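User: I'm putting together notes for a lab meeting next week and I want to include a structural view of one of the chains we've been expressing. I don't have a solved structure, so I'd like a prediction I can at least talk through. The sequence is below, exactly as it appears in our construct file.
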Amino acid sequence: MSLFKRRPKAPVMRYDPNAQQPAVRRSICTGEMTAGFIDLKTGKFIDLMRVDGQKGLEAFKRDIGADEVKEIY
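Assistant: Thanks for the context. Below is the predicted structure for the 73-residue chain, given as structure tokens.
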């Protein structure tokens, strides 16, 4: 048993484009960004992860397989 095992890669996030829309909620005051999905039936935002800057936003887009993400303030 090794002490330095590699962590398994995080699974690619899946979403239903017919029921959810990828979005990033951005704070006006602090600029903090939270990535998640908008439920198209209820309009509620579902938080998934905190995003740090443009690199984090690009990683979120890559993980979900989306080219465009809606921004909410």
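A couple of points you could mention at the meeting. The first strand starts at residue 20 and ends at 26. The chain has a mean pLDDT of 86.

User: Perfect, that's what I needed.
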